[in-house]
Amino acid sequence: MEEKILLEIRNFSISFTQYERGLRQKELTVIRDLNVRVRAGELVAVVGSSGSGKSLLAHGILGILPYNSRCEGEILYRGEPLTRRRLKKLRGREIVLVPQSVAYLDPLMKVGRQVRSSRKDAESKNRVKALFRQANLPENTEDKYPFELSGGMARRVLVSTARMGQPNLVIADEPTPGMHLDAAKQTMQAFREMADGGAGVLLITHDLELAVETADRIVVFYAGETLEEEPASAFMQEETLRHPYSKALWRAMPAHGFASAPGSQPYGADRPEGCIYGPRCPEYTCACGAEIPFVPAGEGWVRCLRCVEQGEGGEET
Amino acid sequence: MKKRLCWNQRTKTLILLAVAVFYLAGVAVWGLVGRESALVTDFSRKNLTPSLSYLFGTDWLGRDMLARTVTGLSISIIIGVCAAAVSAVIAGLLGVAAATLGKKVDAVITWLIDLIMGIPHILLLILISFAAGKGLTGVILGVSLTHWTSLARVIRAEVLQLKESTYIRTAEKLGHSKWRIAKKHMLPHLIPQFLVGLVLLFPHAILHEASITFLGFGLSTEQPAIGVILSESMKYLVTGKWWLALFPGLMLVLTVMLFDLLGECLRKLTDPGSVHR
Amino acid sequence: MKNLNFVLKKLIRMLLLLAAVSVAAFGLVSLSPIDPLQANVGQAALGSMSEEQKDKLKSYWGVDTPPVERYLNWAKDFVRGDMGVSLLYRQNVSDVIAVKLVNSLFLLLFAWVISGVLGLALGILAGVNRGRWPDKAVKVYSLTIASTPAFWLALLLLMIFAVWLKVLPVGLSVPIGMEAESVTFLDRVRHAILPAVTLSITGVANIALHTRQKVIDVMESEYVLFAQARGESTWQIIRHHCLRNILLPAMTLQFASISEIIGGSVLVEQVFSYPGLGQAAVTAGTGSDVPLLLGITMITALIVFAGNFLANVLYGVVDPRIRRGGERG
Fold it and tell me: Which domains are delineated in chain A?
C-alpha cells in the first residue's frame, strides 16, 4: 500500500510576508497544516470555494511560488522528499501542471508551439493536432494566439499541455470554470483517463458536483486548511459526511437545494483561534477554540473535535 | 530578516528626508551668507590645487571654489525648487482638468503633452529661453513650462481610476456633492502622489537648469549658478585644472542623486502596490 | 485595409503634431523681445544679402508684419524646402542643417545603436538576476548616470582621455588648421569617439533601467511560471518568452530614446566643440539666428516624430494582437 503512494504532502503550510500601507509588515498564512496523498491511478480532488488558497497549493508543489512566500512541511514524491533539484528534473516530464487561466500562456506565441514546448519535430506537431481534435478544438487552433481563444478553448489547450508527454503526476488547477457543462465533463473525463492510465491526478476545483462524479477521493479545503478527506462515494449522502462544513457544501450543491451556509470564509489575518470553521459552525462548543488535529475517521480523515468525540475515530493507517 | 529589511526601507526614507532637508537648509544659508566670499578675488592665491585650506581649490581669479560651488548650488537649488513647484502645480491642474472636464479638454491636453515631448527637451528650453529674451526669467520659465508632462499624465490616470472606483461611485449614488467627494475621497489619494511627483520633478528641474545655463542661456557670470561655473571652467580644463570642473559637478550630481533617491523612497512608501518587495 | 487605416491614422497624427510644433516654435520666437534683424544688424550676413533676401527676412521676422501673416509666409516657404537664410552662417538654412546633420548623424547613430543593444543586454541581465549583484551593479550605474548631467560627464571624459591621458583629441571634428580635403576618415572617427561614447553612456543607463523593469514584469508573469513548471530552464525561458515579450516595449523605448539622444547631443557637442546640429542649435540660440533655430527645431521634431511613427507601425507589424485585430486593434 505505502509504496504505491505517488505524492504525499505532510503538514504543509504556505505563508506570505506582506506589507500594508505605511510599511507595517505581517505574516499571512494562506495554507496551514495541509495533508494530501495521491496514489498512482487515483484521482484526488481538492475542493474548496474561491479564495481558499487552492491555486497556491498547486504552485507550492511545483515550486513556483512568489519570492516573498515561505513553505513549511514535507512533500514526498515516490516516498522521497521532493527537493528543488529533484523537482527541476521532474517537472514538465513526470510532474505536470495544468494551470488556471489563459494568462498562463505566452500572449505572443502561437498556442500550438506552446503546447509542443521546445519540441519541433513533425511527430509532436501531429500529436498537438490530435490532442486538439480530441479536445474538440476547431481546426488550426494551433496557429492561434492566446488572445484569439475563448476562455473554454484556452482551458482545453492548457489541458492538452499535460497530455503531450507521459506524466506520472498531474496537478490540475481549476480546469473547468467558464466551460459549458458538456465541455467541463469532457475535460474531467480526460483527467479520469489519465488516472486510469496509471497516473496520479491531483485536481483542484471549486466544483464539488463534478468532483464527486469523477474523483476517487475528495479533500475538503477551507480557508487554507483541510477539513475532511473522504472517498468520493461518501459525498453521495449527507449522512456519510462528518465535518459540518462538508455537510454544508453538500447541501449547497444544486441537486440538494442550493442552501448556502451563513457567513463567509475568513481571509488570512482574520483567522479565528482553534477551529477555522468555528464562527460558522452550528455545533461550535468552547472546546473548539483549541488547536484541532487532523485525525483518521472511518475511511477518511477529519479535522473536527465533535466528530472524533463521538467515537468515530479510526486508527492510524 | 524580512522584518529588518522593511524597517530599513522606512528608516532609509526618514534618514534621506532628514538629510535632504538639512542639506537644503545648509546650502541655502551658506549660499546666502557666503555669497560675498564667493566673489572675492585674490590674485595671491590663484589656480591653487585642492588643499586643506581650499578644499575645492581656487580658480584663475583666486576665488575659493568651495564658496563658489556652494553659492552656485544655492542659486541652482532655488531655481530648481521654484520651477519644480510651478511645474507640479501646472501638472496638477492640467492632469485633473484632463480627467474631469470631458473628452475634448482631455484630447487637447494629451495633444499638448505629446507636442512638448516631441521636441527634444534642451531644444525646447533654448526656444523658451529665447522667447523670454534670455536671462534668468527665460531659465525659470523654460524649466517650469517643460517638466509638468509626466506628472500630469500620472495625475490624470489617477483621477480617472479614482472616478471609476466603487466607493466613489457609491458616494455619488448616495448623493454626496462633487465638492465633498473631491475633498473627502480624491484629495487624500492625490496629495501624496502630487508631493512625490514634486520631489521627483526637482532633480530633473535642477539638471536641466544646469544644462541650459551651461550652454550660455540665462545667467550671467555675476550669478554663478553651477552651470555657469562649469561653463567657465571648461576653458581652463585643457590646461589641466581639473578641480574647477570636478568638484562643482560632483556636488551637483550628489544633490540630484539625493533628491532622486528621496523621491523614489517616498514613491515606494505611498504606492501600496510596490511596497511588498 | 484595417492595417492601412491604422498606418494612415498615425501618419496624419504625426503631420498634425509637426504642424503644431511649427506653430508653437514660431510663436515662441515671435514672443521674444529680441528682434533677430536688429540683433544681427552688425553681422556681415545682413550686409552681404541681396535686397530680395532682406525682403524675405522682413516678411518672416519684420516687426511691422502681423505674426499670423509672418507665420504663413515662413511656413509656405518652409514646406517647399526653403527654410530661409541663416543670419550667422550666411548660407541657406537647409544647407547649414544638411552639413551639420551629417556630422551629427554619426554620433547619434552610434549612440543610438550602442545604447539600444547594450541597454537591452544589461537590462535583461539585471532583470533576470533580480536582487543579485549584476542587478545591483546595473541599478547603481543607471541611477548614477541618471543623476549626472551629460555635459559634466563629457567634461570628465575630456579631462581623463584628452587632457590627462592625451589619447584622444580635445575637440572639433577635424584637426585645427587642416584642409578639409586632407582630413581622413580616421581623423573624423577619432574626434567623434569621445562625444559618441558620452552619449552612449547616458543612453545605455536609461534603456537598461526600463528594460530591467519590463524583464521583471515578464519574469513574474504567469506564463513564465508555467514555463518553469513545465521544466524550461532559465535560459530557455529567456530565449522563448522573455525576449519575445520584451521586444515590443524595447522597440518603443528605442524609438523614444531618439529625442533624448538628440537632446544630449546638444550638450555634448558643445563640450567637445563638435560641429554638429546640436552645437548649431546653441549658436543659433545665443546668436539670435532665428531662421536656423526654427529650422533645427523642425528637423529634430521631424526625426523624433518619424521615430515614433515608425515604432507605431512596427508595433502593428510585430504585435499579433494588433496585426490580427484583437483587443487593442
Answer: 2-94+167-312 (3.40.50.300)
